[in-house]
Write a structure and sequence with these properties.
Layout lengths: L9 E2 L5 H7 L9 H8 L9 H5 L6 H9 L3 H11 L3 H7 L6 H4 L1 H6 L5 H10 L17 E5 L3 H12 L3 E6 L7 H4 L10 H10 L4 E5 L9 H7 L2 E4 L5 E2 L12 E3 H10 L8 E2 L1 E5 L3 H12 L4 E5 L11 H9 L2 E4 L2 E7 L6 E10 L2 E12 L2 E4 L3 E2 L9 E2 L2 E2 L12 E3 L11 H19 L4
Parallel strand pairs: 2-3, 2-5, 3-4, 5-19, 7-15, 9-10, 9-15, 10-11
Antiparallel strand pairs: 1-8, 6-16, 12-13, 13-14, 17-18
Helix pairs in contact: 2-4, 2-9, 4-5, 4-9, 5-9, 6-9, 10-17, 14-15, 15-16
Length: 445
């Protein structure tokens, strides 16, 4: 989607050049060796650890923390990577407070969990610059096509390559990584980590990456099924939902995912135009990432507006608190009804909402927010799915470990049904689909 026409209220360079480096520095600096040892010593090393159950990839968390505590972080990294090959990124972006750390026994004892995410980063970062630790299996002579180089596609490709299959990844964009590269706040993954992790993952060998290849344009499902022994679809969600509010075609209204993409790819943050008064509509991680980064770029007022109660926001409580501590205001139980202005947005009109027996109800109570820039972060949808595939709730319907309605075609990640829209969930789905594909290709499934 192209950048909307800008008006005088939306300008680049709102801050001094030095401020950008400070504002977009690593939001959670890594632990050093001493801090990692101290953090690891807090683990009870539970035999029946609830943190393992809470991890979508099933990492043996007590084991890797014990390995850190005994001075073998490389062994800890291997424990993580066996289950989650993108463990480095997941350590940075997982909502650990809702997953492993939320289930930590220390939470009940002290109200403060073991720093599992930080310890996972400590272990995995130490291996990202080392030679790839996994060897490929004996060649099977089988070829698998993977559509989409996001977390699900990369995890599947790596596991399939490790099994000895030849893999070709078809990616629509110019870089691999998916949301890890284009859709996550830059202060969570600094110093080009997303691409460094992709390069490291691909170094196992047996994986060919072809960029600029979009399903339904440069490639088709029929073509892939004819040329490969199996196909794994992991192309994510390309479409963005509309506000369905009068006037949303005005200038300076953008999709939040496009804003985050441009910020992540910008060589000079000072060149990015940002408004003085920014409104973000939505309640998920994308809304928070867009809002916080708008504030860090120099917006004076930034407001997130969500149509339901704060407890219903998809963004974790930690992310919500990070937003408010960054100067972002959160308004809940309000839905947009109109965008006002001449050519560009000047105000956004909302109505208060209530949860009724039949769902969300809009009331007659209304208010307006001043805005010279508006970001939509109200969810994405699947576009361009092949007609042969059965869909469910707008996504590719799958059973078991990602089997679609078409023989020889699997799907996983955001484009498929099941699971949460999280990096770690996508990794698990890609890994499990790869195991199932391998069984079928070997005649065992």
């Amino acid at each position: 989607m192209t950048q909307a026409k800008l008006t005088p209220g939306v300008v680049p360079g709102r801050l001094m050049q030095a401020d950008y480096a400070v504002n977009f520095a690593d939001v959670a600096p890594p632990l050093d060796r001493h801090a990692a040892q101290v953090a690891a010593d807090r683990c009870y090393f539970c035999h029946d650890a609830p943190c393992i159950t809470a991890c979508p990839t099933g990492i043996d968390i007590p084991l890797f923390i014990r390995q850190i505590s005994t001075g073998t972080p490389d062994a800890a990294a291997l424990t993580i990577f066996h289950q989650n090959i993108l463990g480095g990124m997941c350590a940075r972006v997982c909502p650990t407070e809702n997953l492993c750390e939320g289930a930590c026994v220390r939470m009940e004892a002290e109200g403060q969990p073991v720093e599992i995410g930080a310890l996972q980063r400590y272990a995995t970062d130490g291996m990202i610059d080392a030679p790839h630790p996994f060897l490929r299996g004996a060649p099977t002579g089988k070829r698998v096509a993977v559509v989409g180089a996001g977390p699900a596609g990369l995890a599947a490709a790596h596991r399939l390559a490790a099994k000895g299959h030849e893999v070709v990844i078809f990616e629509a964009r110019e870089k691999a990584g998916g949301l890890n590269e284009y859709g996550i706040a830059s202060y969570k993954t600094v110093d080009g980590f997303a691409q460094a992790e992709v390069d490291w993952l691909l170094s196992i060998g047996g994986i060919q990456l072809r960029t600029g290849q979009c399903l339904g344009q440069q490639i088709t499902l029929d073509q892939l099924r004819a040329d490969f022994d199996a196909v794994f679809l992991a192309m994510g969600l390309g479409g963005v939902n509309a506000l369905r509010a009068d006037g949303e075609d005005r200038d300076n209204i953008r999709d939040a995912v496009d804003f985050i993409r441009d910020l992540r790819q910008a060589e000079d943050l000072a060149a990015l135009p940002i408004g003085r008064d920014v409104v973000v509509i939505g309640g998920g991680m994308t809304a928070v990432d867009a809002a916080v980064q708008a504030r860090l770029l120099g917006a004076e007022t930034v407001t997130i507006v969500y149509r339901r109660g704060q407890d219903r926001m998809a963004a974790s409580r930690h992310e919500q608190e990070h937003a408010t501590s960054s100067g972002v205001r959160i308004i809940c139980n309000a839905a947009p009804v109109a965008v006002h202005g001449n050519d560009a947005v000047a105000e956004v009109e909302f109505c208060y909402t209530q949860d009724g027996p039949g769902g969300l109800v809009q009331t007659e109570n209304r208010f307006r927010l001043k805005a010279d820039q508006l970001f939509r972060a109200i969810g994405q949808r699947l576009e361009g799915a092949p007609q042969a595939l059965a869909l469910e709730d707008g996504k590719i319907a799958v059973t078991g470990a990602g089997r679609s309605s078409v023989p020889g075609v699997w799907a996983g990640g955001d484009c498929a049904t099941g699971g949460d829209d999280l990096t770690v969930t996508a990794v698990a789905e890609g890994r499990d689909a790869a195991e199932d594909i391998d069984e079928v290709l070997r005649g065992d499934g």
